[in-house]
Write a structure and sequence with these properties.
Length: 217
Amino acid sequence: MDKQIKRIIIADDHAVVRTGLQLILEETDNVRICGEASNGFELIEKLRHMKYDLVILDISMPGKDTLDLIKEIQSNQTGIPVVIFTMNPDEVYALRMLRNGASAYINKETDPEQIIEILRIVLSGRKYFSQQQSAMLAELVIEPEKNVSSPLHETLSDREFQVFFLLASGIKKSEIANKLSISKHTIGNHRSNIMHKMNLAANSEFTRYAIRHGIVK
């Protein structure tokens, strides 16, 4: 990484997480936390008015869905890397986020020294994959025929997965419609598709499936 100061913005709705990252990075050479956001709308607004070199993004925030945020950032801020910072297990979300343009997917329990190293890798223009993520990606690319037993939620489109996650989390249709900027009718259509693809009959089954597979806690 060159010696030019790299500007980072942290987007997380928990102040303690933003403060913790500030403390981790404040003694790191050439890296500065220059912005914070507590929701998706605030993040996009700040990106419009200030240039940053990296976005650290919580996987679940008020305002906008994470997948939509990644796509919007990649569309409007060409080239700026996005690092997902999350408590969710890698195997559930990582590949979907990485396929949609994220440069790294870090668990919030990762050691501070490793977090710094991952951020340096991403700031140098590369993507970071954990050993487990690399193995999963290799299987998908090299031996796709072996993935016939992939979990049912992997059959969902990105939008269907967003709706599934929110319904399984107990979020009301009206709130989902607002968060994803779609109608309740469209949500109903997605729900029907999800039920068909995953052989589920009710929202309670969504929740049980999601808990069993570590998608919600």
